[in-house]
Amino acid sequence: MGNRNFKLKYTRLQIILEVIGILILAAMFIVLFLNWGSIPEKIPGHYNALGEVDRWGNKLELLTLPIVSILLYLLLTITGLFPSVWNVPVEVTDQNREIVYSNLKTMLILLKAVVLGIFFWLNYNSMQARPLPVYFLPVVLAVAFGIPIFFTIRVSRLVKK
Fold this sequence. Notes:
60% of the residues lie in helices and 7% in strands.
């Protein structure tokens, strides 16, 4: 597998995506804090596949997604520091290591920002005690699967060149 001490520098795009992720994470807490007094006591606790509320809960449940978001952010950030342990879709060699790891690191950071954005939107929507639009689940699934598929194809093509 090559050098386990390989260090990967951040690209400009990766830095921008990291900043976006951090801003979304901060906004999740700020919006919740600033609106806490006006949030109804009973908020959507869960949605079904059509975006309809199928369980109502206490507004304290709104703290769950921000806490999960911090844990997810930390876990994915730490994972991003150790590319040699990633499961990659191609054979990593000394010749392609930098391009493979850089692309997959971008994928990881982009997924992190997108998931944080989804969590923010879910929490904000719940704060307003509204159902989700019917297109929410298909869009989330398309993005969640589309990003890894795009980067897998991209890395495979780049390695073949």
